[in-house]
Amino acid sequence: MQCRAGCGACCIAPSISSPIPGMPHGKAAGERCIQLSADNYCGLFGKPERPAVCSAFLPELDVCGSSDAEAIRLLGWLEQQTSLAS
């Protein structure tokens, strides 16, 4: 599966605990990453300062669904489920 252009769900829905340029403490779930452009493109894509967790994320139908809105819902649900487990 290829990322949907301008989706940005993976830069909004999950929490990221590692530092992000401009967000030294990471970001909370549901918080928009400061590196996400107004048209939902990653400003760090392909750059060495992009967090490893972001570079390792691969789009899959199970987490991205068939629309941007579904991706937000699925990733939000996964975030909630994994935070309950810890």
What does this structure look like?
This is Zinc-or iron-chelating domain-containing protein. It comes from Pseudomonas borbori. The chain is an all-alpha fold. It has one domain (9-82). It has three helices and no strands. The protein has helices at 52-56, 61-64, 68-85. The longest helix is centred in the C-terminal third of the chain and has 18 residues, at 68-85. It starts with 51 loop residues before the first helix and ends with a helix. The relative contact order is 0.24. The mean pLDDT is 94.
Helix content: 25-40%
Report low-confidence residues grouped into runs of 5 or more: none
Instruction: Estimate what percentage of residues fall within beta strands.
Output: under 5%
Secondary-structure element order, N to C:
HHH
Query: N-to-C terminal Cα separation, in Å?
Result: 30 Å
Outline: globular
Average pLDDT figure: 94
InterPro entries: Puta_zinc/iron-chelating_dom, UPF0153_domain
Protein name: Zinc-or iron-chelating domain-containing protein
Organism: Pseudomonas borbori
Pfam families: CxxCxxCC (PF03692)
Features:
Zinc-or iron-chelating domain-containing protein; UPF0153_domain; 3 helices; about 0% strand; Puta_zinc/iron-chelating_dom; about 90 residues
Explain briefly what this protein structure is.
This protein has 86 residues and is mainly alpha-helical.
Show the helix and strand layout.
Elements (H helix, E strand, L loop, with lengths): L51 H5 L4 H4 L3 H18 L1
